[in-house]
Write a structure and sequence with these properties.
170 residues; alpha/beta; Rossmann fold; six-stranded parallel β-sheet; 6 helices; 15% strand
C-alpha cells in the first residue's frame, strides 16, 4: 500500500528550513512515502529535491517549467470553492492554483488523503495558497506540522521528529 504525505509551503521559505525539508523528504522516501506537492519555488521545490517518488500537481501545463500532473477533478473544484473565502473573486489562474491545492491533499482520484502535511508558513500563519490546503486538511482531520511555528530550528527538528513517529513506525 502506498503511503502519501503533502510537503508544501511558502515560496519565501528560509534556506535553513528548505534544507530541513529536503532531508525530511529524503528520509520519508526511504521508508516508502510518496510526496504530494505543487511545483512552486521555496518549500515545494525543497521537498521535491529530497524525494525519490512524487506526485507533483500543477495548475496548468509547464507551471514553473515543471512536469507534473494537471488535473481538475470535480471534487477538487468543489473543495476549492468550499474552502477559499473569496473563491468567486479570484482570477482564473488563482482558481486553478486553489484547485491544485485540493489535489495535493487528496491525490489524483481525490479519494486518497495524505497521512499528514509538513509545511512552512510565515510565523505559522497558515497564509497564502498553503493556507487553502491547510483549511482543507484541518476540516478532514489530517495532521499538520507547520515549521513556521518555530523560531528555534533545533526545537523544530525535535518536534518534527516526534510528530513523524506515529507515521514512520508503522
Amino acid at each position: 500500500m502506498t503511503k502519501y504525505y503533502t510537503g508544501i509551503g511558502s515560496r519565501s521559505t528560509p534556506q535553513n528550513v528548505a534544507q530541513l525539508m529536503t532531508k525530511v523528504a529524503t528520509y520519508l522516501s526511504t521508508i516508502g512515502y510518496t510526496l504530494r506537492s505543487g511545483g512552486a519555488d521555496g518549500a515545494d521545490s525543497a521537498f521535491e529535491a529530497g524525494s525519490t517518488k512524487s506526485e507533483i500537481f500543477l495548475p496548468w501545463p509547464n507551471f514553473n517549467n515543471k512536469e507534473g500532473i494537471v488535473c481538475s477533478h470535480p471534487k477538487a473544484i468543489y473543495l476549492a470553492k468550499q474552502f477559499h473565502p473569496r473563491y468567486s473573486s479570484l482570477s482564473d489562474g488563482a482558481k486553478k492554483l486553489m484547485i491544485r491545492n485540493s489535489h495535493q491533499i487528496f491525490g489524483v482520484d481525490m479519494n486518497t488523503p495524505s497521512d499528514f502535511i509538513i509545511c512552512w508558513t510565515p510565523n505559522g500563519s497558515g497564509s497564502g495558497g498553503t493556507g487553502q490546503a491547510l483549511r482543507i486538511a484541518l476540516y478532514y482531520n489530517i495532521p499538520i506540522f507547520d515549521i513556521g511555528n518555530y523560531t528555534d530550528m533545533n526545537i523544530a527538528r525535535r518536534e518534527l521528529y516526534d510528530f513523524l513517529k506515529p507515521f514512520t513506525s508503522k
